[in-house]
Amino acid sequence: MNSENLEALEKGLPNLLQHVDNVKNVYGLPCVVAINAFPTDTKAELDLVEAKCKELGVNVRLSEVWAKGGEGGKALAEDTIENKLNAIATKVYRADGVTIAPAAKKQIQQLTELGFDKMPICMAKTQFSFSDDQSKIGAPRGFKVTIREVKVNAGAGFLVAKTGDIMTMPGLPKVPASERIDIDENGVISGLF
Fold this sequence. Notes:
Elements: H1 6-26, E1 32-36, H2 43-55, E2 59-63, H3 65-68, H4 74-77, H5 81-92, E3 98-100, H6 102-113, E4 121-124, E5 145-153, E6 158-163, E7 182-183, E8 189-190
């Protein structure tokens, strides 16, 4: 269409929204809607699509690849470490956002410069609360998650954001498996499994 027609756009949106619902609720996958903008699209039309998607809690980005080529698609690819941390905190933990300590800000900058900002994030956080404070048991509201350190686990392929006063260490049983391992006089090892 060469002229603005919000009524026609509104009639076509259920198709898009059904796809979004399928991706989110049938397949359980994260969803981003790329609004494929053309020169004839008006701001009101673009805003309407964005508003309807946001009502469903879906990320929306403007794609201008038709007019600008690859440069026009950069908004789709940009998702900073800070954005990911905030998304996890607000959408999963229902926090009011994150507070990033100065040391973590410096680490985030370095990780971004080294190209690690595209990795997924694992939050190291207390298991007793959706907050980063183990004394706020259950599912509290009205808090921010403090990010004190961000490090890369390159082999595993993700970043670890340490929150609150959490320490990371391997989980070990009270009695280590090594206490059950033995070698008999014939060199046969027992107790490994």
